Amino acid sequence: MLDINHISKTFNPGTINEKKALQGLNLHLSEGDFVTVIGGNGAGKSTMLNAVAGVWPVDEGNILIDGADVTGLPEFRRAPYIGRVFQDPMMGTAPNMQIEENLALAYRRGKKRGLRWGVTKKEREFYYERLQILGLGLEDRMTAKVGLLSGGQRQALTLLMAALQKPKLLLLDEHTAALDPATAAKVLELSDRIVQENGLTALMITHNMTDAIRHGNRIVMMNEGRIILDISGEEKKKLTKADLLQKFAEVAGVQEETDAVLLS
């Protein structure tokens, strides 16, 4: 479903601030994979995600989603393929619009729009059913402005919106980092459920090793713009934080004590 083939990205090339963010990166996701990505600051996690989303072009290599080469497509042209939930709960919704209006925008993502009613009765019934999945009572507040919701409620709504059209690829960009632990756990639980029920292929960036181990069927670790660990199956199920740190120390060739601070 996702093929990242030998992509590289350097920021500020030829200057004192030159940063090789991605260096010949390869990653392949099969349909239905839920891959968690972890690594220290500057490892290239967000750069990879933004390259897939089309936020900026890569210097070399190509990116395919469901067999379609999207490497040269701008961000808005990738909309039919991708759903995304950002780290900032305020980024995924329009605060001055109602809940149902936000859902209507997401439902029309990548489609042509005409001069007709924004939310039909049939759509409203559909949105009501989808909101019930969240278990937050938002189905009874569909005409409320999204700006009145808490950060956790907005992130849960953004997650629902991102999956509404069943995208080829769901990108979760540290989507619980700005939430308190209890709310983060609830959003992660919803993430698992929405990915599983819709049969989505998902890529989740996180700084939390426990979350990376607990969620998804595969874990990838990045360092200096490359993937240095790729663990799945029974090995992932048995994985602990201590195991992960030790593997990182072995592959990256650095002290484990440093890694514990880096990846905490």
Task: Set out the fold topology.
Layout: E1 2-11, E2 19-29, E3 34-38, H1 45-53, E4 60-65, E5 68-69, E6 82-85, H2 99-107, H3 121-132, H4 151-163, E7 169-173, H5 181-198, E8 202-205, H6 209-214, E9 218-223, E10 226-232, H7 233-237, H8 241-252, H9 256-262
Parallel strand pairs: 3-8, 3-9, 6-7, 7-8
Antiparallel strand pairs: 1-2, 1-4, 4-5, 9-10
Largest sheet: 6 strands, mixed
Name the average pLDDT: 89
Strand order of the largest sheet: 6-7-8-3-9-10
Number of strands: 10
Percent in helix: 25-40%
| C-alpha-based Rg, rounded | 19 Å
What is the annotated CATH architecture?
Answer: 3-Layer(aba) Sandwich
> What is the assigned CATH homologous superfamily?
P-loop containing nucleotide triphosphate hydrolases
Taken from the alpha-carbon principal axes, the silhouette is globular
CATH structural class: Alpha Beta
Instruction: Estimate what percentage of residues fall within beta strands.
Output: 15-25%
Write structural notes for this entry:
- The longest helix has 18 residues.
- Strand 9 and strand 10 form a beta hairpin.
- The chain is α/β, with parallel strands linked by helices and 264 residues long.
- About 2% of the residues have low confidence.
- It has one domain: 3-Layer(aba) Sandwich (Rossmann fold), CATH 3.40.50.300.
- Helix 2 runs parallel beside helix 4.
- Strands 6-7-8-3-9-10 form a six-stranded mixed sheet, sandwiched between helices. Strands 2-1-4-5 form a four-stranded antiparallel sheet, covered by helices on one side.
